[in-house]
Amino acid sequence: MHEVPYDDRDGVIWFNGKTVPWREAKLHVLNHALHYGSGVFEGMRAYNGNIFELTAHNERLLKSAEMLGFEVPYTTEELDQACRETFETTGATEAYIRPIAWRGPEQMGVSAQACVINVAIAAWQWPAYFTPEARMKGIALDWAPYRRPDPATAPVHAKAAGLYMICTLSKHSAESNGYSDALMLDWRGQLAETTGANIFLVIDGKINTPTPDCFLDGITRRSVIKLAKNRGYDIVERAIMPEELSDATEMFVTGTAAEVTPISDIAGEFTFDVGNITKTLMTDYDDLVNGRDISAAAE
Predict the structure, then answer these.
(1) Helical pair 54-67 and 219-230, crossing angle rounded to 10 deg
(2) pTM of the model
(3) How far is CA 67 from CA 61, 71, 113, 161, in A?
(4) Which of 26, 63, 137, 159 is catalytic?
(5) 229 is known as an active-site residue
(6) What is the distance of C-alpha 220 from the center of its chain?
(7) What's the pLDDT tens digit per position in 69-115?
(8) Which residue segments constitute the domains of the chain, with CATH numbers given?
């Protein structure tokens, strides 16, 4: 199905403190962020009229900008309100919200001290990241050709635009091989994440997840860990090597876009069931974001 280009849609975008018609929210080609990747962003989802973990996302946006050496010219509270107002313009009860902050065109070169910081927020209706059918039976992953870098080589804890280049390349490679996504290792050869989601393995009834020391400790990841603990599941954060995949009976990923999605296969080498733990957390997360009663998982 042909998707409508993102620069040719109806609606408005919040742009540096005011709303502008969607098609007029444009940048000059000599923009520092375009040439040098000096931008940070967030992805949020709204369910039943409410943006899930809105403040946590905007707090992370400000922290990501700080890691890239610039200050977003709005407070968390101002960004929260702008996101709500932008979401409301869609007239929808469910949507995806994308705030982004970047260095502008005032200086062109590696140094960007004179660049003004811009902020924009867009909101639109977005279908599920993976099809409902794929989510129920589990998606298949390929091995990513690139690895998550050493924290000494990049600001790995920032949700920075430039860090996603290897994710795009890895996802394209996986899709060309017939897979939904790619599983990334880190620079040490340990399991890290997929191209846009955190990973969990069920081994001997315990939920294992890589320590996020060189990739994002996802907001959805933290939400699902809390849900799992409320259910009484043991959570183990540790270094996990690829060969340990053979010990896992279930595997799933978490993320704002992916939500909770089971994994069925990795490159034809490892297979997993969509088991009870995964199904339970899928249901609990769905209830949580939609504001339904999750007392069955009460602390």
Answers:
(1) 130
(2) 0.93
(3) 10, 9, 15, 12
(4) 159
(5) no
(6) 8
(7) 999 999 999 999 999 999 999 999 999 999 999 999 999 999 999 99
(8) 12-124 (3.30.470.10), 132-297 (3.20.10.10)
